[in-house]
């Protein structure tokens, strides 16, 4: 495993946001949703997330999540993903969202 120093870690904009909307993404190569997240003063951003195995569209709005918001936008099929939603792979490789234990202000940075 490669190590990084504190200064390198501080460059990662890992921020809290609240899911506002979830839509199907049939054009994605692997099953995925389009997810709209409010990062407070940092704006509202969209991403594509392969989280369909553990979550329905109806379960996600209102949930606070963590996203890396300073990656460049990435085109996925006909959609521009604006941030990386974080999570962990289970024993089958399916993604479980990283969670925030108690509500924090949208836009809060992980420190």
UniProtKB/TrEMBL annotation:
PROSITE patterns: TRBD. GO terms for molecular function: tRNA binding. Residues 8-111 form the TRNA-binding domain. Keywords: RNA-binding, tRNA-binding. Pfam families: tRNA_bind. SUPFAM superfamilies: Nucleic acid-binding proteins. NCBIfam families: chap_CsaA, PRK10089.1-3, PRK10089.1-4. This is tRNA-binding protein. It comes from Mucilaginibacter frigoritolerans. The lineage of its organism: Bacteria, Pseudomonadati, Bacteroidota, Sphingobacteriia, Sphingobacteriales.
């Amino acid at each position: 495993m490669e190590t990084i120093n504190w200064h390198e870690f501080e460059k990662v904009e890992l921020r809290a946001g609240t899911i506002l909307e979830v839509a199907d993404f049939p054009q994605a190569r692997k099953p995925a949703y389009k997810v709209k997240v409010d990062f407070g003063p940092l704006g509202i951003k969209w991403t594509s997330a392969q989280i369909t195995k553990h979550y329905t569209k109806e379960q996600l709005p209102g949930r606070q999540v963590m996203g890396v918001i300073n990656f460049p936008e990435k085109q996925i099929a006909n959609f521009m993903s604006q941030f990386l939603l974080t999570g962990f792979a289970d024993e089958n490789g399916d993604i479980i969202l990283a969670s925030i234990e108690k509500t924090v202000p949208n836009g809060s940075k992980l420190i």
